[in-house]
Amino acid sequence: MVNWPIPQTVIELRAFLGLTGYYRRFVKNYGILAHPLTQLLRKKMFQRSPQAQQAFDNLKQAMSTTPVLALPNFSQPFTVETDACDDGIGAVLLQNGHPITFLSKALSRPHRSLSIYEKEFLALIMAVERWRPYLQLQEFIIKTDHKSLSYLSEQNLHSEMQRKAMTRLMGLKFKIIYRQGKENIVADSLSRVGHLMALQAVASIQPAWVQEVINSYATNPKAQELLTKLAVQSPDENGFLLHQGIIRHQGKVWIRDNSTLQTRLIAALHSSPIGGHSGTNAT
Fold this sequence. Notes:
By secondary structure, this protein is an alpha/beta fold. It has helices spanning 10-22, 30-41, 50-65, 109-112, 116-130, 132-135, 160-167, 185-192, 208-216, 221-230, 259-270, and strands at 79-84, 88-95, 98-106, 140-144, 174-178, 240-243, 246-249, 252-253. It folds into three domains: 10-65, no CATH class; 79-197, Ribonuclease H-like superfamily/Ribonuclease H (Nucleotidyltransferase, domain 5), CATH 3.30.420; 208-270, no CATH class. The protein has eleven helices and eight strands. Strand 6 (240-243) and strand 7 form a beta hairpin. Helix 2 packs across helix 3 (50-65). The longest helix has 16 residues, at 50-65.
């Protein structure tokens, strides 16, 4: 990293930022350090400047000297601190006050028009979704600087976004604590530099029926019982386990006796173009 050659083209600069961006969660103020370089990607012509050269040198130095974060200890509780601003959200996963990993993400155009309450709520949900494997084994604490969120469990859910998001919290044991903004330094800083890291985004794809399976748990008493049980012990004595929000039994997705969902899954896995049965002519 120290001997990395000076980028001469936009492609070479993207390669450098792609590598450093992969480790951005371990670098303090990564968005600020990389800002002069990311600005070059937005211009039609690649032109180096003294500020860009200084940013290049500073980023190489930061990448080669950044401290290693702590490894998680699953016998101790986790703490999630979240924050949101106009352009992005930020969060940090901690244990005994020491950071385990960071999250900083720019908000899309539709999400920027949300109210501050909805943005803070979105930051909370996205952080929990990102770190679910760390959080599903025992009770954890969520700290936010938006006071109304500390009463989330007592509120009526009015919007469709709130109802969908709350299904992702099912089966998790957590406590939300209000923390003044001036004390929520790390998450606040990450939320404000999230828009600078929009070029280092990673997307994942999953079938639509996976989310339908998760949503079906909300009206299934047996699923609610299992989610509560698996939040403490996964897998349980009967072989049920919770993986990425989905209940599984002996390696298979568990959907109970939901006939509508069964029919849709059969159609998706049998009759669709990717299901393996494309018809006589194609076969």
